[in-house]
Design brief:
Elements: H1 10-22, H2 26-34, H3 51-73, H4 87-91, E1 113-114, H5 125-130, E2 132-133
Parallel strand pairs: 1-2
Helix pairs in contact: 1-2
Length: 142
């Protein structure tokens, strides 16, 4: 559905994921990044002057890391083949993802950005920590 093209870059990929997350297109969000070759830590600093968008982009890197690391902890690295002959060898490839270094420099929003309303239990803790109120997306790739 979303094959890697020669003109794809980590930055273009990151903004496509951002668009899918903001529009809450959970199915395409999960499918899109699952097969990209770029480590999350390689996403370039967007140098975004909009503090709300910068906060959301920062949080998005944390959500992606949590999603992939959940699979990795279960023994399924990002590049796991469709058919697994030696599950123990695959499980030994335990390289956890991490957010890019620039993400640690983005400050939480002074005034919360409310993107969803509803039951507080449905809100994303990662987003809330930086000042964004939005329902948690279905970002687990398992």
């Amino acid at each position: 559905m979303f094959g890697v093209r020669g003109y794809d870059t980590a930055a273009a990929c990151f903004y496509r994921i951002y668009e899918l997350a903001v529009t809450r297109d959970n199915v395409r969000f999960r499918e899109y990044f699952c097969h990209r070759p770029w480590p999350i830590a390689s996403f370039p600093d967007p140098c975004d002057s909009n503090p709300r968008r910068a906060a959301f982009l920062t949080t998005l890197t944390r959500i992606l890391c949590a999603s992939f690391n959940e699979r990795i902890e279960r023994g399924l690295p990002r590049d796991a083949p469709a058919y697994i002959a030696d599950f123990e060898a695959l499980r030994a490839q335990k390289i956890l993802g991490r957010p890019p270094s620039w993400a640690a420099k983005v400050m939480p929003l002074v005034e919360p950005l409310v993107l969803s309303r509803g039951d507080a239990l449905e809100f994303s803790d990662e987003l809330r920590d930086i000042g964004i109120i939005m329902k948690a997306s279905h970002s687990s790739f398992t």
